[in-house]
Specification:
This protein is an alpha/beta fold. It is 42% helix and 11% strand. The strands form two sheets. It has a six-stranded parallel beta sheet with strand order 8-7-6-9-10-11. Strands 1-2-3-4-5 form a five-stranded mixed beta sheet, with helices on both faces.
Length: 380
């Protein structure tokens, strides 16, 4: 990231400004502010509207305003209506290009995108955005503003349903003596499913992004008077998976056995954000059930929720693991290999609950008890 910024600034292709007036020369203005998410997972689009209207005041009438911020269906069209009303009929056009960047790997996910979705209010906007994206060599899918907005909601809801489906197969596998990871591999080898599909059992959906779009599609169903039972059940299924780790621990280790280490708090590996963190959720669950909870993450930011619940954040991994009766792995922290090495050399190794399926193939001795989603007891 730093090298790219330096290259752009040094070559004259990138400059920064805090003056709206500098946008007058632009043929294309791209609005990419992060849309705030309320506590009920709904999007607060007021900042998007406010910023778009301020930008439009100084834009050339023939320019295009493109939005990539996450917004509900119909938002871009409403923004365009308000802009045109304020500009007394000027023909400024708009585009909506849903952002599909992955936290922690935004540059690579942009450069290696499967396709770019481009929703446009007219042919001029479609042409301008297409020309701007053409140097990437990534295929473009052109459509209306509304279709582009709904495609983002649909993608996230589909991924959320895939995660819920995989975890339900995993719970069935545990009870029936099967290995859901083998089942997942059989699905991934099926051309109608595919190798990159979300069918591997593991942790629940977290971070808020997928849940937000599932909730939004549910609200659309209510608005239009439609029954959408499959989408409506996703978050209920996800809630069951959120409890899997602590429920599994309770079968193997009581609160009196000793402290429990929650390993990994950040939403994505290599980042510090705790937005809708699964690890924080597990730590709070443990405290509520009477366990002494410790947490460790090499990068995660401080959490008021953890401090209020009574769990203890420990900055050194060996200290966090010392005397622990169990470890619940909740995120792929970069120190996972160090954790496994410490467990393997421990005189009294803790019970290991792999809540996200990251160490499913870890070779351990018989003295280390490991519970992984979707793996039943092998038949004798």
């Amino acid at each position: 990231m730093t090298d790219l910024l330096a290259q752009g600034v040094g070559g004259g292709s990138l400059r920064f400004s805090s003056r709206l007036e500098d946008l007058r020369e632009s043929e294309l203005v791209w609005l990419t502010i992060d849309t705030p998410v309320r506590s009920d997972d709904s999007a607060d689009v007021a900042p998007v509207f406010d910023t778009a209207l301020r930008i439009a005041e100084v834009m050339d009438p023939k320019a295009v305003l493109a939005i990539s911020s996450q917004v509900p269906l119909g938002t871009s069209r409403e923004v365009l209506k308000r802009i045109r009303a304020d500009r007394s009929g000027d023909c400024l056009e708009m585009a909506y290009c849903p952002e599909n960047l992955r936290l922690g790997s935004a540059i690579s996910s942009f450069r290696e995108a499967d396709r770019f979705v481009v929703g446009a209010s007219g042919s001029h906007a479609s042409r301008v955005v297409s020309e701007a994206l053409s140097p990437t060599g990534v295929p473009l899918q052109l459509m209306s503003l509304e279709s582009a907005e709904l495609s983002k909601h649909a993608l996230n809801a589909f991924l959320a349903m895939s995660v819920a489906f995989a975890n339900e197969i995993g719970r069935l596998a545990e009870m029936g003596g099967a290995n859901a990871r083998d089942v997942a591999e059989s699905l991934k080898s099926e051309s109608r499913v595919g190798p990159r599909s979300y069918v591997m059992p593991g942790g629940p959906i977290a971070g808020g992004t997928l849940a937000r779009d599932v909730r939004y599609l549910n609200s659309l169903g209510e608005k239009f008077g439609l029954s959408i039972p499959l989408i409506s059940s996703v978050l209920e299924s996800n809630s069951i998976q959120q409890a899997w780790a602590v429920d599994s621990l309770a079968e193997l280790c009581s609160p009196s056995a000793g402290p429990v280490l929650v390993f990994g708090l950040a939403y994505k590996q290599g980042t510090s954000t705790l937005r809708r963190s699964f690890g924080v959720h597990v730590a709070n669950q443990l405290v509520a059930k009477g366990y002494q909870a410790r947490t460790y993450d090499s990068l995660a930011e401080p959490s008021a929720s953890l401090a209020e619940s009574g769990s203890v954040r420990i900055g050194e991994l060996d200290a966090a693991l010392d005397g622990a009766a169990a470890v619940i792995v909740c995120a792929a922290d970069s120190s996972i290999d160090q954790l496994l090495a410490l467990i393997e050399t421990s005189e009294a190794p803790p019970v290991v609950i792999d809540a996200i399926g990251i160490i499913a193939n870890w070779s351990t001795s018989e003295r280390i008890v490991v519970r992984t989603p979707g793996r039943g007891v092998e038949p004798q």
